[in-house]
Amino acid sequence: RVPPRFSKEPDSMYEVMPGASLSISCVAVGSPMPYVQWKKGPAIDMTDNLITKNVLVLENIQESANYTCQAQSTLGLVTKDVEVKVQALPRPPDNVRISDVMSTSVRITWSYDVNLSDVSYYVIQYKPRHADRDYAEISGLVTKFYTVSNLTPFTEYEFHVLAVNKIGRGPPSEPAIVTTGET
Q1: Which residues make beta-bridge pairs with 164?
Q2: How many H-runs (helices) and E-runs (strands) does the chain carry?
């Protein structure tokens, strides 16, 4: 007689993009043979989502959730908690504002009110508004403000700010338009 133990244990965390599918295996052994069951959160039985009794199948995942694999026999119970974390590109920063306008520099500020651990850094993109050229970029910013310098006097500029996380770059903010001062 052997109490239940996991012979194939799921990982503690799976990170997925929104809409992804995931199959998680959890195999237990023992004598008598343990009964394996998956639960979502503390109480929701996930038996309907199983291909076999050991593999939990999640489709079109839209939100993060915690699952538990439990294996039980008359000799005991073992459990393994699994976090399924939905990752997505960060949304654009809000309230992009320009202040301290000089002839060759401006201060740009923005807000971002989500869990900061999800944002690795920010990027400012800017260019003269009517110029037919690519945006210049200032990358790797960890503050929510920056003074952009080396601008051309008396020129209308367009600024965007975007957030970056481990999935990638999010979409740019609404443009902030400003005309630099005269020299």
Answers
A1: 121, 169
A2: 0, 16
